[in-house]
Sequence to fold (322 residues):
Amino acid sequence: MNKLALSAALALALAACSQPPAPPAEPVAATPPAAPAPPAAPVPTAEEVFAAKMDAVLAGAQRSDANKARDQYRHPKETLAFFGFGPGLKVIEITPGAGWFTEVLAPALKGDGKLVVAVVDPATAGSDSAKAYYEKNNKAYADKLSADAASYGEVEVVSFDQKAPSFGAAGSADAVYTFRNVHNFTNSGSDGAMFKAFFDVLKAGGILGVEEHRANPGTDSATSAKSGYVTEDYVIQLATAAGFELVDKSEINANPKDTKDYEGGVWTLPPSLRGGEKDKDKYLAIGESDRMTLKFRKPDTAALAPGDKSDSFEADAAKPAG
Fold:
């Protein structure tokens, strides 16, 4: 039995020795290094965010196609940028008309700023016809705002007395903007008082932005205002008499084609086209009026001369010579 067991063991050992060797193990591939993470997207600046918001507002459905078509003449983005318009401001828009600029200002400031719109109190108008005009315009404007609460729900409307204008608590606004209105102030005899009220409502360092139909230099503005134009010098005189300093001028809204000698005044040109079909193509080729675009600043209190307070300008705010 022992011989048999030994023989079996030797046979098994010889069989094992006769098996081919096992193949070597496949090498394990090295794990590639992880790809670097893509760089983080740059965080947009506040200015970039607001610029994108402005682009969306200008393209927004709250603006009619007709109003958008007028951007080629009125340059809202460039004009407001020149005035320093931006988020977080309290802006007062003076006598907005049908709301052409309100369509831009209100949604741009919604949620980050405040728009106050000042309209004439019809009860203070100088005639029955003027009273009826302001009542009609104010109602149309109010209807416009109430019809689109998403765009205009945060707008505050205040009325003012043309003879003694006030637009809010003294030093409460960051900016006052008035677009194509100065001739109306002059025609009503209230231009000096209006500029004084602009000054009073602004904070120290606050900005007054003025866009106005521009008469030829040397023109008597008291006369030319009846045709819708006033001189740039006249507007600067009104502003500086009220206490403002001129910061800058822009030719954003200039139009050298405007001859300013029309029988129907500035309203001969688009968008009014007062003459109807008469010479319509001629006036459409000219486009909207030649306009000054001026930026004024209320000086810091510290920068004023000793004893030179804002109320000291009251006597100087009387309407200057043309």
